[in-house]
Structure formats: C-alpha cells, structure tokens
Write a structure and sequence with these properties.
homodimer, about 70 residues, mainly alpha, 434 Repressor (Amino-terminal Domain), DNA-binding
DNA sequence: AACAATATCACATTATAATGTGATTATAGT
DNA sequence: ACTATAATCACATTATAATGTGATATTGTT
C-alpha cells in the first residue's frame, strides 16, 4: 500500500468520523504537519505514526499474503 | 500491528521462502541492519522499508477498519 | 573439528521523518 | 461582509531511521 493510498484512506476515514486534522493529530499524538503531509501522500511515515492514527480511527495496519481479502 | 508482530511475520515468511537475511535485504533494497532490527522487533521502520520487503515476500500492507479479516 | 554461511550486535555517520513556527489560503458559520 | 476554524505550505530545527563498518556469535555442512 503506497503512501498516496494510505493518505487517502486516512482522510476518508477522518471525514467519516467528522473530525478535523488538528483534532485527529492531537488525539493520535502526532503533529499536524505530519498528518497533513501524510493525507497529501507526501513523505514516508513511520510505522509508529501509522499505528497511532489507525488506533484513533478504529483501524489497523496489516501485513499479509498478497491478494488476501 | 506492532513492530514486534511485523518482525515475526517477516521472519516467518522469509523462512518459508527459504531466503537469508542478506539475500532478502539485497532483493528488497534495504540494508541488512534494517532488516535484522525489524525482524527482532526493534526500531520504527518506515512505510517504504515495509513496502519494499512486503513486495519481495509476496505480501502487502493494508490499512483497514479494525476487525475486518 | 574445521570451515563457511548466517545472524547478532555495537558504534559512527548520513539521510530524512517528525516537529515547531509563522504565514497564507480556503471553508464554514453568523 | 466579517469572523473563526481548518487546511495548506515554506522553512528551520530536532529526533531518529537507515546505512556502513567491523567484530563476535551462531548455525549448518563436510
């Protein structure tokens, strides 16, 4: 999963939950800049940042055999 | 998914495919040190590193709603 | 046992993710 | 139109991931 798709996924989920970038950033304990860049598909986020955001969004990161649904 | 689980998953998959750390590191284009630490559950790997390794291992990273199988 | 390949680890360096600040633009609400 | 909040962006700083090197185990093979 590329950073562009992850950014889009996070943005979509955030909008579903009706929370703002500043709010999500605070809840997850990451900087607003980091979140902003990630949603834009920029940069190369760390596992820690992805996990923190996923947690707040009720999501999870998975590493699995390709093709598995 | 925590770095410990990811490390274990990668190590298990690598053994299934019967390739060594040096070989996987080279195929994926990451340093042997990075792979070694990751498999040990140390550090905080970047999305890029995880994607490169997943690709070689025939795996993929997914971000999805919690609980989805 | 000896040898070769693999894995582990410490340490220093380099590259860059993450952050902080401030400014600008967009959006929404009154 | 005005105001407040949110989002975008540039730039500098700090923290740390990724790498490189070399040394020491560990494991497997003959």
């Amino acid at each position: 999963m590329l950073v562009e798709q992850i950014g889009e996924t996070i943005r979509n989920r955030r909008k579903e939950l009706k929370i703002t970038q500043p709010h999500l950033a605070e809840l997850a304990g990451v900087s607003i800049n980091t979140l902003y860049k990630l949603e834009r598909g920029q940069g190369n986020p760390s596992l820690d940042v992805l996990n923190k955001l996923a947690e707040v969004l009720g999501m999870e990161l998975k590493l699995q055999i390709k093709g598995k649904l």
